[in-house]
Recover the amino acids of this structure.
């Protein structure tokens, strides 16, 4: 296997043991557990890995420590021990069966350092560090939490997680993993989960007060489908240190914009140009805004579920690429400002009425993990040496991931058809 930078990549060999079920350590409630309409929108499996190595502690007891910690954590997060099913209304709902999460022990025939920098996406290699449920035909056949503990010859180990996004967003996932780590260390939970998702029920009757272009189907007049079909998809990561981020912000010409707004506009405009979209092609930007503090009243601390809402901006490709960067950034700012309580309640009601899911035609779906503190997780081996996603869930997804000292740098991860990626790389030179 050859790495994308042309260097020889590690031919990772991993031997998996038989999976075990980890049930909650105590009896937990049974029955149906409500999932909100914000949970319904993103029912995809998200795979992440955490690399641990401690000079003071080997990996002999890593599997057992994590297994016992998980059993204790599932007492608090008991819906994760259940199984997804479809409700009478045709929506996803969790059946709290107590069957448990799935945990697998594995061994790698190499040292942890040989994995290299996981910021450079390599789904083929990193995919061996997460367990894929054999024969599963859809998400209903995959437990909401599947974990693999892979031990390395050097005494380090990697925790690979496959978690269903309908159970939590990035903030909720981070809080769960950190709670699991606290249980593994024998500490009390610093942020106990708030389990009641009915606070985000649709209104009765539903009220759609806002346009919701996030769900709009956009005709692919540029025939990008042919480009994706004929050109191999390649993944790259682009590193933006504080100095480079400052250059992007100054390029906007705006008096005021956040790092996220500047980088989002920069990447959206560059990707649109790299795909050579026709000038009249409508291009859509989708990104998640954390609504926890924007709801009225705000969601409770530790809210266990999706508190994010997708916002959007739609612009003709010619206008986007032919205007200064500041124009793209102002479109991003407008999308951020839209996300208030009324907009979010309207989005919840829109799904209730239409059952529509956001369309990804001619779309860039931006997801940002730059504010998530996954790097603080400590199961007893110290903080992870590195952590991040195994792969991007859809070809339209671009991920912003914090990196480096004080997390002030950002890695931009994405996949594009090979010819478009060459054009994109040139546009990233700033």
């Amino acid at each position: 296997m050859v790495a994308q930078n042309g260097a020889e990549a590690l031919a990772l060999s991993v031997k998996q043991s038989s999976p075990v079920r980890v049930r909650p350590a105590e009896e937990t409630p049974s029955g149906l557990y409500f999932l909100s309409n914000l949970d319904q929108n993103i029912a995809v499996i998200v795979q992440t890995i955490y690399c641990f190595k401690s000079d003071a502690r080997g990996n002999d007891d890593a599997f057992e420590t994590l297994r016992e910690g998980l059993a204790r954590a599932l007492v608090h997060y008991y819906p994760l021990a259940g199984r997804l099913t479809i409700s009478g209304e045709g929506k996803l709902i969790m059946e709290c069966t107590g069957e448990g999460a799935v945990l697998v022990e594995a061994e790698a025939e190499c040292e942890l350092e040989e994995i290299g920098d996981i910021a450079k996406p390599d789904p083929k290699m990193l995919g061996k560090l997460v367990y894929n449920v054999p024969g599963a035909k859809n998400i209903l056949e995959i437990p909401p939490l599947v974990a693999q503990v892979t031990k390395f010859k050097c005494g380090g180990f990697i925790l690979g997680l496959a978690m269903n996004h309908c159970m939590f967003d990035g903030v909720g996932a981070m809080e769960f993993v950190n709670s699991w780590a606290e249980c593994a260390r024998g500490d009390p939970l610093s942020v106990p989960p708030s389990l009641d998702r009915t606070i985000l029920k649709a209104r009765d009757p539903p009220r759609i007060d806002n346009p919701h272009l996030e769900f709009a189907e956009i005709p692919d007049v540029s025939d990008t489908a042919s480009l994706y079909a004929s050109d191999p998809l390649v993944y790259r990561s682009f590193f933006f240190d504080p100095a480079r981020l400052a250059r992007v912000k100054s390029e906007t010409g705006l008096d005021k914009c956040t790092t996220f707004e500047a980088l989002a506009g920069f990447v959206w405009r560059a990707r649109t140009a790299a795909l050579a979209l026709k000038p009249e092609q409508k291009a859509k930007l989708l990104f998640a805004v954390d609504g926890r503090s924007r709801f009225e009243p705000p969601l409770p601390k530790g809210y266990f579920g999706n508190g994010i809402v997708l916002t959007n901006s739609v612009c003709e490709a010619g206008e986007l690429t032919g205007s200064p960067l500041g124009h793209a950034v102002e479109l991003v700012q407008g999308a951020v400002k839209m996300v208030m309580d009324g907009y979010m309640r309207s989005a919840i009601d829109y799904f209730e009425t239409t059952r529509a899911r956001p369309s990804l035609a001619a779309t860039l779906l931006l997801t940002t993990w730059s504010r998530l503190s996954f790097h603080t997780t400590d199961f007893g081996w110290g903080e992870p040496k590195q952590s991040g996603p195994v792969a991007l869930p859809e070809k339209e997804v671009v991920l912003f991931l914090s990196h480096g000292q004080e997390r002030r740098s950002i890695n931009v991860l994405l996949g594009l058809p090979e010819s478009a990626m060459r054009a994109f790389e040139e546009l990233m030179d700033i």
